[in-house]
Design a protein that fits this description.
Elements (H helix, E strand, L loop, with lengths): L2 H4 L12 H28 L1 H12 L3 H29 L1 H18 L6 H15 L2 H10 L4 H12 L1 H19 L8 H23 L12 H20 L7 H5 L2 H30 L5 H29 L3 H20 L4 H22 L3 H4 L2 H15 L1 H17 L3 H19 L3 H4 L2
Helix pairs in contact: 2-5, 2-8, 2-9, 2-10, 3-10, 3-13, 4-5, 4-6, 4-7, 4-18, 4-19, 5-6, 5-7, 5-10, 7-18, 8-14, 8-16, 9-10, 9-14, 13-14, 13-16, 13-18, 13-19, 13-20, 14-16, 15-16, 15-20, 19-20
């Protein structure tokens, strides 16, 4: 069927298809596979936090060396993310996501053979290069299927993969570290990288069977449903164009002050989410839980709470078409939980509850923050802007683990680093408060 037919205004025959039924059908088709992909992507990115519990001792790495290596991922991410997103607009999501997943899976498995800090640094950098474009690419991909009024809920469902990677990855990583140590001459942390990297390779090979580049290409939507969705998306694009969301060039996009506000907010949420993700196993261990399997099981609780919280926040935001206070609240809850975890350090159960609250807050902030760029940007400018926001903003992921590592080496405590993350979350809340109401409430 021609594009001309598909993009005509909504026909009367489409009327029987309720809005929620059509987008629910799309969500059931594309989101489960995207969630599984990102679950393993994120697991491959942050399982270094569990490997650290044994890897540093085996290889005689310092805490600062670990923090630097953990953060170097984001330098590779910074350099290649925006180009990856622009390329996706030209070659399609299917080819882009397949390429990214195959490369990151193979590189993640290669960590099993690291022996020196330099090898560790190089592979972390290359992992960032390989994965560059996946997360912002999916943010962009969702705009090809869902209008803004549904995107908070759908983005929340996708981002659920991040805490789910902790729910699944924590116990799995702890079990691998403890049960597979010295099997066939490999340490537990080496098996960790090999076992958890393989699914990414297999999922990458499966991409052509599960993803399509646009609603026009699928057989599981009727012609009327395609017209409904494409007319809806076209109306969304026209609104953003009228509000200055189209940029004629990359330079014009970079001159948009709203983009740089999003960069600042992205830095704040990245410092929070990666500070928690990279250091939660160590923080749990520091509460007195030393058995690695026990650490993995206990670490799953904060991530499970985050998976529930971010979906509740996303649904609430869509229902009310309100973004500002949902994001402010998430930032402040994260900050309060982090500070409380330090104050309650002498009471492990209470401190763990506080860490759970903090994790729910920082993950909800990530979901809400990424709702904002697609509310006012459009077309190739949006693709480039999302890449720029995530790549530069993602430097917070470099700063967070490295700063905490330096503080821990200097003070033999993570308390100062946790206060640093909490302070940045408060700054994120203040920046959000200054956003124009017309920008964030739609």
């Amino acid at each position: 069927m021609s594009d001309r037919i598909l993009t005509t205004p909504l026909a009367a025959a489409a009327a029987p298809s309720p809005d929620s039924a059509v987008y629910g059908k799309i969500a059931r088709r594309i989101l489960p596979f995207l969630i599984v992909c990102y679950l393993f992507a994120y697991l491959d990115r942050v399982n270094i936090g569990f490997a650290k519990l044994r890897m540093l001792q085996d290889l005689s790495f310092s805490e600062a060396a670990y923090g630097l290596g953990a953060g170097l991922f984001f330098i590779g991410y910074l350099l290649f993310e925006a180009p990856s997103n622009v390329l996706m607009m030209k070659i399609g999501a299917k080819k882009t996501i397949m390429r990214i997943m195959l490369l990151w899976g193979l590189i993640s498995m290669s960590f099993a053979f690291v022996q020196t800090p330099m090898q560790f640094y190089v592979l972390r950098f290359l992992l960032g290069v390989a994965e560059a474009g996946f997360y912002p690419g999916i943010i962009l991909y969702l705009t090809f299927w869902f209008p803004s009024r549904h995107r908070g809920k759908m983005l929340a469902l996708f981002v659920t993969a991040i805490p789910l990677s902790g729910v699944i990855g924590g116990p799995l990583s702890g079990w691998i570290l403890q049960s597979m140590d010295r099997i066939h001459g490999f340490s537990g942390w080496q098996w960790l990288f090999l076992i958890e990297g393989l699914p990414s390779v297999l999922l990458g090979l499966a991409v052509p069977w599960f993803l399509h580049d646009s609603p026009r290409q699928v057989q599981w939507l009727s012609d009327d449903e395609k017209r409904f969705v494409l007319a809806d998306l076209d109306a969304d694009a026209r609104r953003k164009s009228q509000e200055g969301g189209d940029h004629a060039s990359i330079l014009a996009m970079l001159a948009d002050r709203r983009v740089w506000t999003m960069v600042a907010l992205c830095i704040c949420q990245a410092i929070g989410i990666y500070g928690v993700s990279f250091w939660l196993p160590s923080l749990v261990s520091g509460l007195g839980y030393q058995n690695v399997l026990q650490v993995g099981l206990i670490s799953a609780a904060p991530f499970a709470a985050a998976a529930i919280a971010l979906n509740l926040v996303g649904r609430s935001s869509d229902r009310r078409l309100e973004r500002r206070w949902h994001l402010i609240g998430a930032f402040l809850v994260g900050a309060a939980g982090l500070v409380a975890s330090v104050w309650l350090h002498g009471t492990p159960i209470a401190a763990l509850v506080a860490l759970t609250v903090a994790t729910a807050g920082v993950y909800s902030a990530t979901t809400m923050m990424w709702m904002l760029p697609s509310l006012f940007l459009n077309g190739v400018g949006m693709a480039a802007a999302i890449g720029v926001i995530n790549s530069i903003g993602g430097l917070g992921g470099f700063v967070s683990p490295y700063v905490i590592g330096l503080i821990k080496d200097a003070t033999h405590s993570t308390s100062g680093g946790i206060y640093f993350i909490a302070s940045v979350a408060v700054i994120g809340a203040l920046l959000t408060y200054r956003l124009p109401k017309s920008l964030v409430n739609r």
